[in-house]
Design goal:
The chain has 512 residues and is mainly alpha-helical. It has 21 helices and 5 strands. It is globular.
Length: 512
C-alpha cells in the first residue's frame, strides 16, 4: 500500500486540498447531472418499452374475450353467451369474438381450462423469482453493463419465439424466460450509480412506465392481436442493443472491484461527454486505494453472496423488511394491473386508465418525498392505498350498492397510491444497500417480491367466485407494509454506502 501512503502525505502537506476523497465527489467533479446523465436517462426512458411491454402484455393476452357456447340439438343450434353450457348441456363448439384475439381464444382456454391463462402469468412471475437472486449475483459479479444488455437480448429472442408459439405450453416456457429477462434488466440499471442522491428522486417524476403502459393499451386497441405485441417488443430490443456502444460500466462498481484502469477510462468518458475537465487521477487513486485498503483490512475483497445480506443485524433487518414490503407491493400492483377485467366498463379504456394512473402517482411521490423523505412518504402512501383497496373489496364482497364508475375510481386510487409508494420504495431500498451487495440485495428482495406477483393471478381467478377478494387482500397487505416502513432508516440526503464495513457510518454521510 505504498501508493496509498504517499498520497496521504501529499494530502497532509497541502498538495491536494479539495473536498473529501469519495467516489461521489469524483462523479460530482465530472458533472453530476450533465449531458451523460441526461442522455442515459432519455435512453432508459425509451428502452423501458421493452421491459414494460414484456411485463404487462399478459394483462391483455390472458384476458377472456366474449364467447358463445353452441350446442347442436335436433337440427338446431342452441347458444348461450359467456357460459360453458346451454341448459346444462356442454358446448359442442365455442365461438370467440373476433375483435379480441388473445391466448384464450387462440388455444381455447375457457371453461375447464380457464385456469391456464392466469397460470401462465404466474409462470412468468416465477421466472422473475428465480432470476432475482441469480441476476443480482451476476450484476455484482460481472458488472452492470453486460448484465443489462444480455437481458435485453434475452427479452428480444424470447418475445420473437413467443410469436411463433404453437401451443400454450410452448408459450408458457417463453413467459418463464421473459420473466428471467425482466428481472435481469432491473438488477442492472445503467445510470443509477452515476446520478447523485439529490437527483435520483426526480427520476421517479418521469412517468416512463405509465406512459409505455398506456401506449400498450392503445396498441392493443388498435391491433386486437396478442401476437403483434411480441413482434414490436422484439424489434424494440434490437434498437436498444445499440446503446452498448455508448454506455460505460458503473464507476462505483469498477472501483469496488479494484478495476483501476477501467474506472479511470469510464470517468474520463463521463467528463468528456459532460464537457468537464478530466478528474484529478491522483485523487481517483486516493479513492480507489482507500476502498481497497478498507476492504483488505477486513478481508472483504472477495465475491459476495446473498448470505452477506444476513451477516449483520443492520443488513438483516433491511433485507427482511424490504423483502416483505416488496412482496406485498408486488401483489397489490400487479393484481390490480392484471385484473383489469375486475373493473366495470370498456376493457381497453380501463386498461389505459390502470396504466396512466401512475403518472399523477409519480408526481405525488416526488412531492411528498421532497417534503417528508423516503420513509414517511412510503408510510403514508401505503396507508392510503390500503384504505382505498379495502373499500373496493368490501363493496364487492358485501355486494353494497355503488355505481361502477365510483368503484373504478376507488380501484384506480388504490393503484395510484400503491404505485407511488413502490416507486419511492424502489429508490429507498437501492440506497439502503452498500455498493458491493447493492444489486445482490436488490435482486434478492425483487425475487421475494415475485411470490406476491405469482399469487396475484391466482387470486384474480378466485375473485370470479369470491367477489372483492383481490382488493381485500391488497388492502390488508398495504396496511402491513405501512407498519414495516416505520422500522426502516431514512436515506434522503445521504451518500451511497460502498462497502459492508462502513454500512452504518456511510449512511450518515452528507449528500455529495
Amino acid at each position: 500500500m505504498k501508493m496509498y501512503g504517499a498520497i496521504e502525505k501529499d494530502i497532509e502537506s497541502g498538495d491536494i486540498q479539495q473536498e473529501p476523497v469519495t467516489l461521489g465527489n469524483i462523479i460530482k467533479e465530472t458533472g453530476d447531472c450533465g449531458a451523460f446523465q441526461i442522455i442515459g436517462t432519455v435512453y432508459n426512458s425509451f428502452a423501458l418499452v421493452v421491459l414494460s411491454w414484456s411485463m404487462l402484455t399478459m394483462a391483455y393476452s390472458a384476458s377472456v374475450p366474449r364467447f358463445t357456447c353452441v350446442v347442436f340439438q335436433n337440427g338446431t343450434n342452441l347458444t348461450s353467451s359467456d357460459t360453458c353450457d346451454v341448459n346444462g348441456t356442454v358446448c359442442d363448439v365455442i365461438e370467440y369474438d373476433t375483435n379480441m384475439r388473445t391466448i384464450v381464444s387462440e388455444w381455447g382456454l375457457v371453461c375447464d381450462r380457464q385456469w391456464v391463462s392466469q397460470t401462465i402469468t404466474t409462470i412468468q412471475m416465477s421466472g422473475m423469482l428465480v432470476g432475482g437472486i441469480f441476476w443480482g449475483h451476476v450484476s455484482d459479479g460481472i458488472g452492470r453493463k453486460p448484465t443489462f444488455f444480455l437481458n435485453v437480448f434475452v427479452l428480444g429472442v424470447a418475445n420473437l419465439i413467443s410469436y411463433f408459439s404453437v401451443n400454450w405450453q410452448m408459450f408458457a416456457c417463453m413467459r418463464f424466460i421473459i420473466g428471467l429477462g425482466c428481472t435481469g434488466w432491473m438488477a442492472a440499471p445503467l445510470m443509477f450509480e452515476y446520478i447523485p442522491n439529490r437527483w435520483r428522486v426526480y427520476l421517479i417524476a418521469l412517468p416512463n412506465w405509465a406512459l409505455w403502459g398506456g401506449a400498450l393499451a392503445a396498441f392493443c386497441y388498435w391491433s386486437r392481436d396478442w401476437k403483434d405485441i411480441h413482434i414490436v417488443i422484439a424489434a424494440g430490443s434490437g434498437l436498444v442493443m445499440i446503446g452498448w456502444f455508448y454506455f460505460v460500466e458503473s464507476f462505483r462498481w469498477l472501483v469496488s472491484n479494484g478495476k483501476v484502469q477501467s474506472a479511470a477510462a469510464a470517468i474520463r468518458k463521463v467528463a468528456r461527454v459532460n464537457r468537464r475537465s478530466e478528474p484529478n487521477l491522483t485523487k481517483l487513486s486516493v479513492a480507489i486505494e482507500k476502498e481497497q485498503k478498507e476492504a483488505e483490512v477486513t478481508k472483504l475483497l472477495r465475491v459476495y453472496s446473498v448470505l452477506d445480506l444476513f451477516r449483520s443485524r443492520q443488513t438483516r433487518k433491511t433485507t427482511i423488511l424490504f423483502a416483505l414490503i416488496w412482496l406485498f407491493s408486488s401483489y397489490s400492483y400487479y393484481g390490480i394491473a392484471f385484473g383489469v377485467q375486475e373493473l366495470s366498463g370498456n376493457f381497453y379504456l380501463n386498461f389505459f386508465l390502470v396504466s396512466v394512473i401512475d403518472i399523477p402517482g409519480d408526481s405525488l411521490a416526488v412531492l411528498f418525498n421532497t417534503w417528508g423523505g423516503r420513509k414517511w412518504t412510503c408510510t403514508g402512501l401505503y396507508a392510503l392505498g390500503g384504505v382505498f383497496a379495502l373499500l373496493v373489496g368490501l363493496f364487492k364482497f358485501l355486494n353494497l350498492s355503488i355505481s361502477g364508475t365510483s368503484l373504478n375510481v376507488l380501484a384506480l386510487g388504490a393503484k395510484l397510491f400503491v404505485g407511488a409508494a413502490w416507486d419511492i420504495n424502489t429508490l429507498w431500498s437501492q440506497e439502503s444497500f452498500p455498493t458491493v451487495v447493492r444489486f445482490i440485495g436488490g435482486g434478492f428482495i425483487s425475487s421475494v417480491s415475485r411470490v406476491g406477483s405469482m399469487v396475484a393471478p391466482q387470486i384474480i381467478t378466485l375473485s370470479r367466485d369470491i367477489k372483492g377478494l383481490l382488493y381485500l387482500v391488497s388492502g390488508i397487505v398495504c396496511l402491513l407494509s405501512t407498519g414495516m416502513c416505520v422500522f426502516l432508516d431514512e436515506t434522503k440526503n445521504r451518500d451511497l454506502p460502498d462497502i459492508l464495513q462502513n454500512f452504518n457510518t456511510d449512511n450518515k454521510r452528507e449528500n455529495e
